[in-house]
Write a structure and sequence with these properties.
The chain has helices at 2-11, 45-57, 93-96, 105-114, 118-128, 130-140, 154-158, 167-180, 190-201, 266-280; strands at 16-22, 30-32, 38-39, 66-68, 102-104, 146-147, 163-165, 218-226, 229-237, 244-251. It is α+β, with helices and mostly antiparallel strands. The chain has a single domain, classed as 3-Layer(aba) Sandwich (Beta-lactamase), CATH 3.40.710. A hairpin with a 2-residue loop joins β8 (218-226) and β9 (229-237).
Length: 287
């Protein structure tokens, strides 16, 4: 069976590999250490995106309102000095080109996903607030994932305030988004969930999950990476089968592509391999 083959393959991988595969709203078909916590890297941006849309529909934010684009943020650690992002550590020059000006929250939310902009992420967290991001995880039914600080908030990080995810929690959030686009759900209206899925489909970093799929396959996904970590989380929409959620989280020395994430490494190839094998079994997933 494909699942036993994947387990045997992943048993040989150094470090911790977690996985979750299943149809949204159904019991999982295959899991592997799905509740193990990993450093979130940029997968935490999924919860920030949901928090923005949820707050907008609750009347607390306006996605189309312009906000200042500034590179200065409050630390999550009380009493710590403000912090800033490093331009060389980011992936999106488009946001940096607007520093000193303004941009809409909707545009910034898109940059969080399509180019994984760190600067846009921290601006959006400053607008929506970390409690709203925590609420997004809770509304999705996540049990262990935490977004405790912004990106490059080193004072908070060094004090133990961190960003953590599990494969099961990422799958729960993505599954609720997929289901929420078809009927009212806890995260946002069907139109809001559909809009978020469209943003995730437009994601430009495609070195892992998307690389294991046939060209042209629709996948709404977000990945995350730092040295030693590579995650891929998405919902795949085949033309010939119902959609399925797939999450692979790796904390491993195979993830040596560096901070920019543009370099395909062995962790990317590992996630692509899992994605390819799950695609081959797409008709046989539990419903």
């Amino acid at each position: 069976m494909i699942w036993e083959e994947l387990d045997a393959h992943l048993d040989r991988v150094p470090g911790t590999v977690s996985a979750y595969v299943g149809r949204p709203g159904a019991r999982p078909t295959w899991t592997r250490r799905a509740d193990a916590t990993h450093y979130a890297a940029s997968t935490m941006k999924l919860a920030v995106l949901v928090a923005l849309f949820h707050a907008t529909e609750a009347g607390r934010l306006d996605l189309d309102a312009p906000v200042p684009v500034r590179n200065s943020f409050d630390s999550a650690l009380s009493g710590a000095p403000r912090f800033a992002n490093d331009r060389d550590y980011d992936n999106d020059e488009a946001v940096w080109d607007r520093v000193g000006g303004e941009a809409s929250l909707r545009w910034l939310a898109e940059r969080i996903i399509v180019r994984s902009s760190n600067l846009a992420t921290n601006i959006c967290i400053g607008q929506v607030g970390l409690p709203a991001v925590a609420q997004a995880w809770a509304l999705a039914g996540a049990r262990h994932s935490v977004t405790g600080r912004g990106i490059e908030d080193f004072a908070a990080r060094d004090s133990g305030i961190d960003n953590l995810v599990t494969a099961a929690d990422l799958a729960a959030l993505l599954g609720e988004l997929a289901l929420g686009a078809t009927r009212p759900g806890p995260l946002a209206s069907p139109a809001g969930c559909a809009a978020m899925l469209d943003v995730l489909v437009a994601q430009e970093h495609r070195e892992d999950l998307a690389a294991g799929l046939p060209d042209g396959t629709r996948i709404a996904h977000k990945n995350g990476w730092v040295r030693g970590v590579r995650h891929g989380a998405g919902v795949v929409f085949p033309d010939d089968a119902p959609p399925y959620t797939i999450v692979v989280c790796t904390t491993t020395d195979l993830a040596d592509g560096g901070a920019d994430g543009e370099v395909e490494d062995d962790a990317c190839r590992l996630i692509a391999h899992v994605s390819e094998r799950v695609w081959a079994a797409r008709h046989d997933l539990a419903g």
